[in-house]
Specification:
With about 240 residues, this protein is an all-alpha fold. It contains eleven helices and no strands. Helix 2 packs parallel to helix 5.
């Protein structure tokens, strides 16, 4: 809990320095691809509304984590029978921090919690090639792009499951005030396999209903518009005759 508070507070401070003081910020950890990726990507989410969209979030992970060289295989122990000393849930901490910010700004993110759950689950599932190996060089050598399916391809084929119907684009940056009181347990992920309790998101089914209703209304409105346009065209032609 304190780790999440420290990470979110640090990126909030960095984003505030850039936004309010118009000053540059240098981010660097001992290796350069753990905390650096966490802080830079979270700061970009706060500063730029593009990275709070579905497409922007995919681009952010590709840019700040995969291309930047975060060692997914080493940190998640992919392919290892036991957990090594190099294991560290750095990327999961990032996803958790995004969830924490989303709880404070539920209308500022185009994607919903289901996207974060899907990414977190498939980080370890190895069903997709997105998070395999430690760097782009290894992924190119192992021909990951041609031999595996990207997680983003799966997500983009069923976007409606991952969209927030309450989303309102916010042009300015968001600067959350983080304390121990605002940090919550992400039960849908961390306790998903609890033997006695099921922690399901009570709003997810309702969200999907709203998404379906919105698509239905948009479709009916477009159909009515086309009919009205055709009727007006016929009336104009009759008037000319």
């Amino acid at each position: 809990r304190r780790v999440r508070e420290a990470v979110v507070s640090t990126q909030s401070t960095g984003a505030s320095t850039i936004e309010n003081k118009r000053s540059s910020v240098v981010i660097h950890c001992s290796d350069g691809w753990d905390r650096t990726s966490q802080i830079s990507s979270l700061s970009m989410i706060l500063l730029d509304p593009y990275y709070r969209t579905l497409q922007g979030f995919e681009v952010l992970i590709e840019k700040e984590w995969l291309s930047f060289g975060h060692m997914f295989r080493t940190r998640t122990c992919h392919g290892s029978k036991t957990m090594t000393d190099n294991y560290s849930p750095i990327f999961l901490q990032f996803i958790d921090c995004v969830w924490q910010i989303g709880q404070l700004y539920p209308y500022s993110f185009e994607f919903n919690n289901n996207l974060l759950l899907t990414i977190a689950q498939h980080l370890h599932s190895c069903l997709f090639g997105t998070f395999l190996f430690d760097c782009d060089k290894q992924r190119k050598e192992m021909e990951v792009k041609t031999k595996t399916v990207s997680l983003w391809s799966y997500i983009n084929t069923c976007k409606t499951r991952f969209l927030n119907p309450l989303y309102k684009e916010k042009k300015e940056c968001i600067l959350p005030v983080i304390s121990m009181r605002t940090i919550r347990l992400w039960k849908q992920y961390w306790m998903a396999y609890h033997p006695y309790h099921k922690f399901e998101d009570p709003t997810f089914d309702r969200t999907m209903e709203l998404v379906g209703l919105r698509e239905k209304i948009v479709g009916e409105s477009e159909e009515a518009r086309l009919k009205n346009q055709a009727a007006n065209k016929n009336n104009v032609e009759k008037a000319r005759d």
